[in-house]
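Handout, section B. The chain below has 104 residues.
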Amino acid sequence: MWREDHNPGLSAAYGCDRLDRLTRAFDDFFDRAEAFGLSEEEILRLSAKQSGKTLPPGDCPLEARSETVETAAREADRCPCFFQGLCLLMLPACCPPCPLGLAT
């Protein structure tokens, strides 16, 4: 019988690396802006500059070496390996007998 705890898609280990790093970059930016008590206008102005920053390197084999925040935001959901927040390349191979009958 299929159980949710056997679904590898529920594990954060298989999440999209590019999307995770992009999310962390935005969260870090807004946390810093909030800590400094910046106005909405100042945050928007700084946010435009933030988009040109380079993301730290990650594990995505399809990502450019020096990808900017702007590029990552634009390309993350267009990646052929991206599916509902997961990186299909990171998922383990299905081991027979597959509980869904999808043997490889």
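Note. The radius of gyration is 18 Å. Compare this with the example in section A.
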